[in-house]
# Entry
Amino acid sequence: MRSYELIIIGAGAAGMMAAVSAAENGIPGEKILVLERNEKPGKKIYITGKGRCNLTNACGADELFSNIPRQAKFLYPAFYAFSNQNAIEFFEHAGMKTKTERGNRVFPASGHASDVIRVLADEMKRNGIRVEYHARVKRLLEREGEIRGTVLCDGKCFDAERVLIATGGMSYPSTGSSGDGYVLARQMGHEITGLHPSLVPFAAGDEDLVPALQGLAPKNVRVKIFDPRKPKKILFEDFGEMLFTHFGVSGPLMLTASSLVGAHLDAGGPDRRPDRRSDGEDACQAGYGGESPVGNHSDGSLTLLIDWKPALSEEELDRRILRDFEENKNRQFKNALGGLIPAKLIPVLIARSGIPGEKKVNGITRQERKNLTLCLKQFSVTLTGLRDFNEAIITRGGIALNGVNPSTMESKRIRGLLFAGEVLDLDALTGGFNLQIAWSTGYLAGFHAAEEYRLSK
# Structure
């Protein structure tokens, strides 16, 4: 059995940052072992931001925390130990230039996520850190409340003073995120909260609407989401871009909305709570079962209202329609809307407005025009559920934070057991904030491991 000061399970964003942090803060690289179940590091990083990797956000601290809708206070120590500016400086200092785009989103200047992986891999190599691939951890070794090491699925054992679980969540399982970290944490007595896909598209129930609008990507719309049983309570409202797909709606607005309103669609969804599974299971098993086409179904549904002309009031829009009609007064209604809305929307709007498409514009009544205005300002879509983990950017839920010390990322139950990244019950909105959680918690966990190592000498 080989012995190490620190074993890190997972060579993703949090795990690699933790390894570098531990080495640069005092643990000799040869005493750090990273165990990765895949054949190479950073598989999920590689596909983030459509392959460009939105690695952080250049906003101030207040804005950063406002983009972490749940339990943001837990992250205060980690963020102040390694902030978004520290992350930018880390990559810049390693020779990777960055660029800041709309919304303060930070990317590699090259536009290639592979550069982020390369920097982290090179830093681990420079520090002499050992990485073992195709190494899946079956269980953790513990004695009298202290971590002692790991056992791999192939039977190989490693002794360690500290073990860090940085296995990621359940999103994009093709990258290896099948929930191993939850099983390992549960073995050590940690609670796992319910797991749900987040930053994920919605399924829609409007069978006539969805295929007709597939591929339509409006860039300047205002949306509202509410429970039709409580229409006065707005669950989400924002302005921006969205996308109609073959199953429902996606795009930046909808991904953000899923993080904030997804819980309202969870009733009746699949139970993803690992602590409901049998005690005999271990992390060598395939995961938490097959995925359904839609991740969460609800007994009810939510209503999405789209304002296609948010810059205009209803009165201003009515005047705009009147002007368009005056210019096309002898044309049929279906041929007079091209200057007002996208072509794909025309047949749907005609059907919803109740105005016959063949009707001459000069014969449209004031009430019909009012109906048209309302259709444009309050275009409804029925949201029936969230898509599954295969399409989710992140996981909502994870290792319960009440069992983790936010100042060290160490378990409150098992001495020497640490956590970092998406495996924790932490998630944020889009814009680079989730990777910043990985950088910050990974850095702090590695720093704490190094500090404990120094104190032991």
Notes: The first helix runs from residue 13 to 24. The mean pLDDT is 91. The two ends are 22 Å apart (CA to CA). Residues 2-196+392-456 form a domain with the FAD/NAD(P)-binding domain fold (CATH 3.50.50.60).
